[in-house]
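Reopening this ticket.

The earlier resolution said the output was attached, but the attachment link was broken on my side. Pasting everything inline this time so it's all in one place.
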Amino acid sequence: MFARHFIDSLDFAHNGRELRGILPLTEMPRLQDMLATPEGEINYFVRGLPDKDGKPMLEVTVEGVCQLRCQRCLNSFEYPVKLFTRLQLADAGKMDEFSVEENDEVDCIATDRHLDVSNMIEDEILLSLPFAPKHQVGACNSVVEGKSQSDQHPFAILQGLKGLSGLKNK
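Inline output:
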């Protein structure tokens, strides 16, 4: 079993602490629906520091590989995960004051005396994944009669199916 890390986010940022580790994909339950297979690990590094105005923030670096399911051919493919995120810490009551227009490179999260680092890493991965993951164009492995489905017109496939059903009715 994996040992979860919890931090006091404000203390962590104010004291310039650092945390690094490896997180198995099997320990990220919300991510499982997006994965073709749960094998793999994610390397992470979290560092606390003040921003240019002295406000506490966390820098999060995440690297690894996920196996996603292609929405074209339904086969799995490797999807590299490489993220660098800056998270501004703010009191829950002051979250409305954070302006995205001021700095679009920094997101804002509520301070937490018991912040689950694994959940934070999982959140960042989920936000980075494509809505409908797909192989690159022409890379799908789905093959019908020597041609990939992407090479055939979609109605040609239906015409072939119609021909098969006509044979059964005779």
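Reporter confirms the inline version is readable. Residues 143 and 149 are 6 Å apart (CA to CA). The helical segments are 9-14, 117-128, 154-169.
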